[in-house]
């Protein structure tokens, strides 16, 4: 979807900007008298709550001292939170809107704008309204009782509003097996259509091994566990998408993975197959429907024979 492409572009931009020095390409002809820090927050800010509110609902992110929580219930995607703060640090007003165009954008802000508030403790340190155009190519910011501005990240063509438009589902942490791997006890892989290729990974004498394989190829096993550790959902399915794929979700999975820690807590992943509309793979994590990218599963869909050391 175009919205996802815009967001992926923004994430790539921010990631690149955080690793390398900022290269700012700025045309000052229409922004010489504008305060470029108008919408910025301090780089050393202590923001611990963010609220996004629009006609579609409210999303709240809170920092509990160690991680960001979504609506005080689910763990938020730390990568997305980083992208959000980096966007605010880099976004700059390009020009103030005037005339009938200003009026139309202000009307759009009233109808579909996203009201953003950032807190440090009980103090609101930044408040503004964000909206994009219908084509999702331009973004506009407005402070309370001020004029709206066209906003860009200098040097790049990116839809800044995409990070502000995320739904609650899209803010969720997308790591599949999100737990302390130091507490790992076992992993069981089950292939319903080929159970002879099932296997169990366990830790013995400080080393991982396949219980059903006489001599395990440790290089392949390490690569496999790395793929498991890094597995992320593309997104959690909406109620509409769940209905579209209900017959698939009711069927037999092509693969099941169960990970258990030393406290006997379990995480169970079932992969069912290609989604009805699109190219992702429908799955569930502890019975919650998700979408996985096929390339993300490439290193996870393995048979027992794959790990046997060749003579």
Task: Please give a structural write-up.
The protein has 311 residues and is α+β, with helices and mostly antiparallel strands. The protein folds into 2 domains: 2-171, no CATH class; 181-307, no CATH class. The protein has helices at 2-19, 78-90, 99-112, 168-171, 218-230, 239-244, 246-249, 294-297, and strands spanning 49-54, 57-63, 68-70, 74-75, 92-96, 114-120, 123-132, 139-142, 149-152, 184-190, 199-204, 207-210, 235-236, 255-261, 266-274, 281-285, 288-292. Strands 4-3-2-1-6-7-8-9-5 form a 9-stranded antiparallel beta sheet, with helices on both faces. It has an 8-stranded antiparallel beta sheet with strand order 12-11-10-14-15-16-17-13. Strand 14 and strand 15 (266-274) form a beta hairpin. Helix 1 packs across helix 2. The radius of gyration is 23 Å and the shape is elongated. The chain starts with a helix and ends in a 14-residue tail after the last helix.
